[in-house]
Structures are given as structure tokens and as C-alpha cells.
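Hi all, posting the design record for the shared folder.

TITLE: backbone redesign
STEP: 1 of 1
STRUCTURE INPUT:
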């Protein structure tokens, strides 16, 4: 699958590790459900620590992507959900460390709460 970065100078530049838009080549589009920082074996949050939850959420997302026949590079769209938007920079840094460039299109949304008291959730759309 090839991804083409779409960029317009007439819109604000990305302020983090994401692209304004991504055009993906033909293939199968897979819509992934949200993942929070649960340990697969126990179904419990990996930690009360925000960074630990973010990393586990992305690990869970990666496992589902691989089950669909993709890789992290297959992501064309991400949504991040944070219960505390003051931790936005931390989530950005972790995402930039995990997700390969070109970064997918992305939204970050502040939410009042998440299942099981999680602080972070991520969902994605991939093309494989």
C-alpha cells in the first residue's frame, strides 16, 4: 500500500506527529475499534501511569492491525482520546516514537471519561 501525504498551505500546518490528510492506494479498508491500556492476559489496566497506558494502548492497536494483515505503516487515520488534555504533549511524543512517518491524519479529543477508568484511548483506520 502506498500513502500520499496531502498538504495545503491554505490550512494550518500540523502541530504534532500527524498529517493534514493521507490518500491511500487501493486495498481493503479496516476500521479498528478503540484500544485502552488493558493487559491482554488480565483485562486490567496495565498501570495508573498515563505513559504506560498510552504505550499499552498502541501495543494493543498494533496487535489488532497485525491480525488484520497490516502494520503500523498501514494506518491512514488515528483518533486519540484523552481524559486530561494537559497530557497532550506526552501522548504526541509517544505516538511520534511508535508510529512511522509519514504520519497518518489524526484528531485528538478531550473526553470526560473512558471505560475502566482509562486515561487514554486510540482507534484507527488502516488500508491493507
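Okay, here is what came back for every position:
SEQUENCE:
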Amino acid at each position: 500500500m502506498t500513502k500520499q501525504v496531502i498538504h495545503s498551505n491554505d490550512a494550518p500546518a500540523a502541530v504534532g506527529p500527524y498529517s493534514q490528510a493521507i490518500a491511500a492506494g487501493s486495498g481493503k479498508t479496516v476500521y479498528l475499534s478503540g484500544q485502552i491500556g488493558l493487559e491482554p492476559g488480565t483485562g486490567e489496566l496495565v498501570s495508573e501511569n498515563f505513559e504506560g497506558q498510552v504505550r499499552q494502548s498502541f501495543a494493543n492497536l498494533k496487535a489488532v492491525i497485525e491480525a488484520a494483515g497490516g502494520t503500523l505503516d498501514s494506518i491512514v487515520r488515528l483518533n486519540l482520546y484523552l481524559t486530561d488534555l494537559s497530557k497532550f504533549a506526552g501522548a504526541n511524543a509517544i505516538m511520534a516514537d511508535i508510529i512511522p512517518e509519514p504520519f497518518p491524519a489524526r484528531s485528538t479529543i478531550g473526553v470526560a471519561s473512558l471505560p475502566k477508568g482509562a486515561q487514554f484511548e486510540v482507534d484507527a483506520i488502516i488500508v491493507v
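COMMENT: The beta strands are 3-6, 21-24, 29-36, 75-82, 105-110, 120-127.
Let me know if anyone wants the other runs.
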